[in-house]
Amino acid sequence: MSRPHFDPAQYDAQLSEKRARLVELLAPFDAPEPEVFDSPREHYRLRTEFRLWREGENRHYAMFEPGDNRNPILLDDFPIASKRINELMPNLKAGWADPALGFKLFQVEFLTTLAGDALITLAYHRPLDDAWLAAAEALSARLGASIVGRSRGQRLVVGRDYVEEEMTVAGRTFRYRQPEGAFTQPNGVVAGKMLDWAYEAMGPRDDDLLELYCGNGNFTLPLATRARKALATEISKTSVNAALANLADNGIDNVTLVRLSAEELTQALNEVRPFRRLAGVDLKSYDFGTVFVDPPRAGMDPDTCELTRRFERILYISCNPETLAANIAQLHDTHRVTRCALFDQFPYTHHMESGVLLERR
């Protein structure tokens, strides 16, 4: 993992540059002025990973500049990471002085939440034994955090293999399980602003919602309360299981979740071929008015993009404004951008999240 160039004095200027870049990318589509949602200047990142670098008998948390894995940046703290991560870093470092925990440990990952939960993943170049498990249990109790140990062919869990988060949208608090190793939004404060924006942009509906790439149900939970019923899709088994648990934990019963990729759902809706995973799901019973998409950096493939054209409203969250612009170009003849937003998930980097609402012309 590379280290962002942390300089709070430059934050406002960098955010202005990102806004100008988004405006330029969306200018061909006559998009309105973007709503801009800033980030805390420090302690905003809820997850991070470090390599360990040996100097003599000592090992340190380390990061590297992109393309350079020979010259580490050694760290005692990490100002962009959550306060919880910064509290855990020195205490974990003291813990790996125990050979049962420190021997052939090469990577550490932290996953925390705004709600205060924490999980630490320790990765090894050796098998994990009973001595490791006993030491990890003692360390977990001291740190107040779950621990997952990983080595080739092994995954040992002390505590839970997920953290619990809480997000409040329109006065309702939603609880989320966020599994170890699965994608979660790194910037919790900005993630909350994204949920608020998407909830408001969707508005109350008397028809149905289709969601592609639903992950652990991050957006599914609040958006489902705006629709008559919802069909959500996700391909990752880990994320599907988390989403199902999150729906149950929050008492949301108007969502059907199927483990299909966006491409497979496109084939199903186009009646190209049947899928056993859709057994018992009557696709024709849905009156879809809105499709919500939060695709990977590559954006939507052309066929999925064509699928979204069928819907009156397309609510699109993007982690890559270039592929967002390319997808809008494909849809621009039938849909217009009526709202757009910039979410600064990744301060001090060129990366940004954006959102658009497209409505049929």
Automatic annotation (TrEMBL):
Catalytic activity as recorded in UniProt: uridine(341) in tmRNA + S-adenosyl-L-methionine = 5-methyluridine(341) in tmRNA + S-adenosyl-L-homocysteine + H(+); uridine(54) in tRNA + S-adenosyl-L-methionine = 5-methyluridine(54) in tRNA + S-adenosyl-L-homocysteine + H(+)
Biological process (GO), any one: methylation
Keyword tRNA processing included in the entry's annotation: yes
GO molecular function terms listed in the Swiss-Prot or TrEMBL record: tRNA (uracil(54)-C5)-methyltransferase activity, S-adenosyl methionine-dependent
UniProt keywords, alphabetically: Methyltransferase, S-adenosyl-L-methionine, Transferase, tRNA processing
Amino acids binding S-adenosyl-L-methionine: Q185, Y213, N218, E234, D294
EC number: 2.1.1.35
Name of the top EC class for this enzyme: transferase
Active site: C319, E353
Pfam families in the cross-refs: tRNA_U5-meth_tr (PF05958)
Keyword hit for Methyltransferase: yes
Domain of life of the organism encoding this protein: Bacteria
Free-text function comment from the UniProt entry: Dual-specificity methyltransferase that catalyzes the formation of 5-methyluridine at position 54 (m5U54) in all tRNAs, and that of position 341 (m5U341) in tmRNA (transfer-mRNA).
Family: Belongs to the class I-like SAM-binding methyltransferase superfamily. RNA M5U methyltransferase family. TrmA subfamily.
Protein name listed in UniProt: tRNA/tmRNA (uracil-C(5))-methyltransferase
Organism the protein comes from: Stutzerimonas tarimensis
Encoding gene, per UniProt annotation: trmA
